[in-house]
């Protein structure tokens, strides 16, 4: 697991939507879920206001999620116009697991050293091999992948055994 070196967020258990006498999941459990998950759902907004949701892998590193999107894909166009987005992960099970919703702003990652580190993590976790092009990933057939970092501004975690609903606030 790649853990954060940033201060842990403050949990706020919503007792109205949680089982009686339960505690908020510790941030370390949420971070473990973000680190272990392979697939996430990215939600962005098109220029006409319609939502756009798509599955994609993400990498948790140093307190942020990192994604790679094709330069000409709809999600890249949406993020270029409005960087606000949501990444979600979890299970499709009702009575087990932890679902996590991460809100924030996506910012391009172009630093070669960081891209090399992220490419190695993509290879190790997903067996995806990227070269580093001009401020982007490049796949084996020459397509560019723009890399974005999403630092959470708010995280919601929905535990399902027991049922909990927790908001994590991040120190400014």
Outline the fold blueprint:
Blueprint: E1 10-13, H1 27-36, E2 39-45, E3 51-57, E4 59-61, E5 64-70, H2 74-81, E6 84-89, E7 98-109, H3 112-126, E8 131-132, E9 137-138, E10 144-160, E11 163-169
Antiparallel strand pairs: 1-11, 2-3, 2-6, 4-5, 5-10, 6-7, 7-10, 8-9, 9-10, 10-11
What does this structure look like?
The chain is α+β, with helices and mostly antiparallel strands and about 170 residues long. The protein has one domain (about 10-170): Electron Transport, Fmn-binding Protein, Chain A (Pnp Oxidase, Chain A). The protein is about 20% helix and about 45% strand. It has 3 helices and 11 strands; from the N terminus they run βαββββαββαββββ. Strands 1, 2, 3, 4, 5, 6, 7, 8, 9, 10 and 11 form an 11-stranded antiparallel beta sheet that branches. A hairpin with a 2-residue loop joins strand 4 and strand 5 (about 65-70). The chain is globular, with a radius of gyration of 17 Å. GO terms for molecular function: coenzyme F420 binding; oxidoreductase activity, acting on the CH-CH group of donors.
């Amino acid at each position: 697991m790649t853990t954060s070196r940033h201060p842990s967020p403050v949990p706020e258990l919503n007792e109205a939507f949680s089982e009686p006498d339960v505690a908020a999941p510790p941030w370390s459990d949420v971070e473990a879920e973000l680190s272990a998950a392979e697939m996430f759902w990215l939600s962005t907004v098109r220029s006409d206001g319609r939502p756009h949701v798509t599955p994609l892998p993400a990498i948790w590193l140093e307190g942020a999620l990192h994604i790679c999107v094709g330069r000409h894909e709809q999600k890249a166009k949406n993020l270029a116009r409005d960087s606000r987005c949501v990444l979600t992960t979890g299970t499709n099970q009702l009575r087990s697991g932890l679902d996590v919703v991460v809100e924030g702003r996506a910012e391009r990652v172009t630093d070669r050293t960081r891209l090399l580190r992220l490419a190695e993590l993509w290879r190790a976790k997903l067996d995806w091999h990227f070269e580093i092009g001009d401020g982007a990933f490049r796949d084996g057939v020459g397509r560019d992948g723009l890399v974005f970092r999403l630092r959470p501004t708010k995280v919601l975690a929905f535990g399902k055994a027991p049922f909990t609903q927790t908001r994590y606030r991040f120190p400014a």
